[in-house]
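User: Okay, second chain of the day. Same drill as before: sequence in, structure tokens out.
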Amino acid sequence: MNASTPGKIIGPDAPAPVRKIIHVDMDAFFASVEQRDDPALRGKPVAVGGGHRGVVAAASYEARVFGVRSAMPSVTARRRCPDLLFVKPRFDAYREVSQQIRAIFADYTDHIEPLSLDEAYLDVSEDRHGLGSARAIAEAIRQRIRAETQLTASAGVSYCKFVAKLASDQNKPDGLCVIRPEQAQRYIASLPVGRFHGIGPKTAARLETLGILTGADLQSLSLEELTGRFGSSGEWYWRICRGIDERPVRSSRVAKSVSAERTFNEDYRSAEDLHRELDRVAGLAWERIARGQAAGRTVTLKVKYSDFRLISRSHSFVDPVADPATFTAAGHHLLDALLPVPLGVRLLGLGLSNLVERGGGGPLQLGLAI
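Assistant: Same drill. Structure tokens below.
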């Protein structure tokens, strides 16, 4: 792709057509389904998940005002919002709505790449219904989602996946944002690097210590400077800050595992501390497992000690792990086998692998899951 003309892929003879990509993201999906189905929750701060030692799987916008976020320990969420209402997750209900949404997508394109139950990329370069523009298609999809599910979705429209995903977050909730190729570099320049998909909080903090706060700061650095500082990731930073993303929308993606991990601010040694933190990691991991509708037979515990030595222990089941309680219990069993720990522990991770299709024995195709 030419860096000066984002979105135009240069072929051997002539420029290829600019892709038209939509990123659709449901608004506070789990919490919104709960508020839809229980009128008593509407307009109130709601957290899905939680419990005494659990984590928040999703938070309503009313809860987010207080700083409640997904993956936050429920104790912290309660402290930030004393009136927070916790509800148990109903993944069957979320999957049912997700299937409704997927059916709507499929009416407009066959090129659908789900990222989770509540978001997906769509390539609508072919205008199947003759609506005239990708903006019109995105608006039609959002209107149908509202009419058929009584829920709202936000959408970003652009020529590549990276910019479309940025755009979908721009006018949340219930918003639409279109970024044209000629607008991309200026738009990216205006954003904090923490908004960029693929740059997590730790990487953003590292960039900020180097004085790289915005897309404009990234754009001011050469490819050589970025690769010198960040290795192979530097090339990716150089490309995305210029709006260069040639990844196609893939309608079928094979996942090998789903996991989560947590690095601690202090090293832990006691069994009580380690089991408490493992509960939190397990909650976050299961939320990802549920979002991807993953099913697997192997639970793997990952432990990094204070000397940075990394070990893993696994347990495989005959049948796929069916629920979060079994998943978490397997993690605690693996941890118990390592206690007492010889050194402090700086990181715990828990994951599910040996993935299969739900109700079958083949590899899990996450592209079919939404």
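The radius of gyration is 22 Å.

User: Thanks, on to the next one.
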